[in-house]
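We modelled the chain as a single entity of 95 amino acids. Its sequence is:
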Amino acid sequence: MLKSSLISKLHNKYSSIKVYDVEKIIDLFFEKILKGLQNDQNVEIRGFGTFRKKINKEKMVRNPKTNERIFKEKTNKIHFKIGKILHKRINSQDL
């Protein structure tokens, strides 16, 4: 789902809120998740899941085309663990 379609669905459901305000709410929501991850905090949304930051260690890697060895610095990635309620809803037979 695209951000624009999410905004339009929320605006259709809650028509008393302006599109601009819905967009600001969604931006604020994602900004709070980003700030939490930048501060090395886990972000848990009950019933949905947990976001956390994982670190890929620095290591030597190989370019398969040239067989050249390259040093890869440590990087961060986001790990998402699905919540039980969301997992049950996705895997239920009542879709």
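As a brief sanity check on the tokenised model: Helices lie at 3-13, 19-38, 84-91. Residues 26 and 50 are 18 Å apart (CA to CA).
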